[in-house]
Amino acid sequence: MKDLHGITLSYIKAYWSKDRVLYKAFGDPWGSFKMLPVFFYMLEQSNPGTITKIEKDSQNRFTYGFMALEACVEGFNTVIRPVIAIDATHLKAKTRFVLLVIVCKDDNEMIYLLSFVFANSE
Question: Which domain of life is it from (predicted)?
């Protein structure tokens, strides 16, 4: 910043500036989790047979959310090998949640998506 614009910028000021821009661009990450029930309801209405589940703990805090589209489940039941693989990646946001992806292979050795899970830990 100093070379390009002649501004001395501390690390913490750059961090908070980036955080503020991300908040304005994408909104509050916790607000997104509050919208999950509405999103899952609309997903079930537009895709009959889709399976969704949101689990909360005793203090009404989000624990995990599960989503499996009906087309993926039907494909798994008819043409996919019955071997499932689960992989996780940590979401590097304020929420610190984990995204789990459940996949399997089809007859052509291609990866077939089965479902997603958003969880607070593996």
Answer: Eukaryota
CA atoms within 13 A on the CB side of 32: 12
Which bin fits 12, alpha (ψ -120 to 50), beta or left (φ > 0)? Answer: alpha
> Which pLDDT does position 122 carry in this prediction?
62
With 80 as the cut, is the pLDDT of residue 95 above it? no
Cα 99 from Cα 89, distance rounded (Å): 5
CA 93 to chain CA mean position, Å: 11
Do residue 40 and residue 9 come from a single domain?
Answer: no
What's the total number of domains in the chain? 2
pTM: 0.68
Neighbouring-strand partners of residue 54: 65
Domain with 13, as residue range(s), is: 1-26
